[in-house]
Prior knowledge:
Blueprint: H1 2-14, H2 19-30, H3 35-42, H4 48-83, H5 105-119, E1 123-124, E2 130-132, H6 133-136, E3 163-165, H7 171-179, E4 184-193, E5 205-215, H8 220-235, E6 241-248, E7 251-260, E8 277-286, H9 288-293, E9 302-309, H10 310-318, H11 331-334
Helix pairs in contact: 1-4, 2-4, 5-10
This protein binds 3,4-dihydroxyphenylalanine.
Residues 168, 170, 210, 248, 251, 282-284, 305-307 line the site of 3,4-dihydroxyphenylalanine (DAH).
Amino acid sequence: MKNNLIFDNFYNKINDCDFTELKKIQKEYFGKNGIFIQILKSLHNYNDDYKKDIGSKINKAKNDILVKINKEQYNKNCTNVEKNKNNFDCSEGLFFPFVNGNFHPISKTIYDISSIFKSFGFLVSDGPELETDWYNFESLNIPKNHSVRDLHDTFYIDGYVDLLLRTHTSPGQIHIMEKHKPPIKAIIPGKVYRNESSDSSHSSMFHQIEGIEVDENITFLDLKNVLFEFVHAFFSRNLKLRFRPSYFQFTEPSTEVDIQCNFCNGNGCKICKNSGWIEILGCGMVHPNVLKSVNYDKEKYTGYAFGIGVERITMLKYDVSDVRLFYENDLRFLKQF
Ligand code: DAH
């Protein structure tokens, strides 16, 4: 109650003040021994809910007074510019109202997924976007002239026979296995590139998150468990999973995973094309040839791998219908996340 009065008092005070008065009030509340600073210092005596509530109110107050100060400064500068039209000092900063930003939805998904996998004991790693043929294809059991390369619509680098922009994050599997001996358990998020024309669900640059675990006695059941837990945590719901047989060169057996449509609960709607299921990722058991290419003992170790399309899973979570919205930088869209 006492604190609420302090906040009311603060907001009454900052109404209708000029720049100098606002600076004075800022010092009174946020200076070294300021009123809000004292409150923050005493918060350790209280429970988490109270700390969170007061902490966020003080943060808001700090931001609100800053916005006002910047506005006043801006007005002051405008008047100065008016007065000294011929003598404009451009080094005098024109501060615009300070606005809190937020994560881009793609960064937010990468952050959320990384936090989930970190809580399962996965390391978060990365790899280069410029790759060699070996890392992007050969080491992953995709030999030269294999027809599956056609699906990858690769951007090669002019003048370099061997260099390309990675078409998937799977080469991250190789980098992590080269760096560490088993057991390994890691995810590798990042940008990938394919020469695809852009439409509502394709873009020539997009994001994937690769996952891999290799150890003794890893089975398909471990893969199922980890994906089930992941889907549950990411969508905050217990959605059903369906494993459909599929084909990837670097996993055997390979499957694609569908989740029960989170828009119609599996009853069938426009988004899931009336099937009740939506595909979210590809996965499988790491192919022995991949283990061989990093000199892991393929008799002793087994593992699973998966690749998640970040744009796709973000569109599913937030009901976004066109992938291009992520790259247009329209603040009206971005501020919703
Ligand atoms: N790299 C695949 C792609 O871009 C996705 C993928 C499928 C990754 C299966 C995997 C996997 O690790 O096991 O289409």
